[in-house]
Design goal:
The protein is mainly beta. The protein contains two helices and 23 strands.
Length: 390
């Protein structure tokens, strides 16, 4: 009996981890918050909500961008240069071919993806990527249509001028507001002073029409030597962009150097200070600027020291999480976590909570048409949905 008992214990020690591992991949019906939690799922109890991570799809490299074609399908980018459509029902996915040539390396590759708000009628999707251009590599924006598993009607809308050597600070998150397309561009790291120079696109937030033309009411149209696409400037490396239709505010966050990541409200023609003002130091500990504020330069809504390396930005508007209604969610790369921010009516951050602490690098966050919050992670690239438990 003792020998049999020992064999049984050994069986449990070997088999149970395998069973739990396999169960993490099991698809479950998530439309009912009372759904039984799958065995082995990661469960977390936050300050005001218990939830678990349901695996939507996995096996990617770095899922950089997420958007939704409809209530049953998401479209995602893998930084390595792959584009996929994924079923929200069973996690199956298909690769979409026909992308332009992408210069993959460093922080560059296939970046954000954006489905036009009128996708049902016009079929346009927009994607950002690093590509060879004038003088080197820069961020490009194109649009196309999905026809089965192939992109058609490919159009290049924007190319950063100038292109540069190096593989750092490409941006790039996008938002469409009405017929306007906004996106953020990094200063490519090696040219930080250019973020203050209106004659180039480096370290700028850009506004063009959704067909690539330039709005005539952009703030620097008609300014001698200035790029007419510029909406705001003095940015370091924008990695989150969100437009709140209820308040008509455009929110952005960007990486600081060693400390000084920022959350900003973007206003027409404003200067956000980089590198003339910053709350961070250079990576070797040296001082970039003695100033954290100057006249004529905007202050962030909040900043982080030490850095969290924010990436992805969304705000809960649906009814799946009443406890989190109107809270912002920001992914963290170096912090390997997900941040929840509560903002009051005067747009001040009054509370922060750190979720999924040190689990994985969170690259993107997006609220789906089903009201659930989706997050993507890196290496291995996995997409999770946060399912409340009540």
């Amino acid at each position: 009996m003792k020998i049999r008992g020992l064999y049984f214990v050994l069986f449990l020690l070997v088999a149970l981890p395998l069973i739990c591992s396999l169960s993490r991949c099991k698809k479950v019906e998530v439309h009912d918050p009372g759904t039984e939690i799958p065995p082995g799922a990661y469960i977390e109890t936050s300050e005001n909500l218990k939830f678990y991570l349901d695996t939507v799809a996995s096996g990617f490299n770095i899922v950089w961008g997420i958007d939704f074609l409809n209530e049953k399908e998401m479209i995602v980018t893998d930084k390595s240069g792959k584009l996929y459509v994924i079923s929200l029902e069973d996690g199956t996915h298909k690769e979409i071919t026909g992308l332009p040539v992408i210069d993959f390396g460093g922080q560059g590759g296939l970046l954000d993806i954006l489905v036009h708000p009128d996708y049902k009628s016009n079929g346009w999707i927009y994607f950002a990527y690093s590509a060879q251009g004038n003088g080197g590599v820069g961020t490009a924006i194109s649009r196309a249509k999905v026809n089965g598993t192939v992109l058609t009607d490919l159009q290049l809308l924007f190319q950063t001028d100038p292109g540069m050597s190096g593989g750092g600070h490409f941006g790039c998150r996008m938002q469409i507001v009405g017929s306007d397309l906004y996106f953020g561009l990094g200063e490519r790291y090696i040219a930080r002073e250019e973020a203050q120079n209106l004659s180039n696109h480096l370290g700028k937030l850009i506004r063009i029409k959704d067909d690539g033309t330039i709005p005539t009411d952009n703030p620097f149209v008609g300014t001698a030597g200035a790029k007419p696409e510029i909406w705001s400037y003095g940015h370091r490396n924008p990695q989150g962009l969100y437009y709140d239709a209820a308040t008509q505010l455009l929110w952005e966050h960007e990486h600081g150097p060693k400390g000084g990541d920022e959350l900003n409200i973007i206003q027409k023609g404003k200067n956000y200070g980089w590198p003339e003002i910053t709350f961070g130091l250079d990576y070797d500990g040296s001082v970039i600027s003695e100033d954290t504020a100057r006249a004529g330069m905007e202050q962030p809504v909040c900043y982080w020291v030490p850095s969290i390396a924010p990436c992805g930005l969304d705000r809960i508007k649906g009814n799946k999480y009443p406890e989190w209604q109107n809270d912002f969610f920001i992914g963290g790369l170096v912090s390997q976590s997900l941040f929840r921010l509560r903002v009051d009516n005067s747009n001040k951050v009054i509370h922060q909570e750190k979720l999924l602490d040190e689990l994985f690098r969170v690259r993107e966050v997006a609220e789906g048409p089903d009201g659930y919050l989706y997050v993507s992670t890196e290496s291995p690239g996995t997409i999770f949905r946060l399912v409340p438990v009540r």
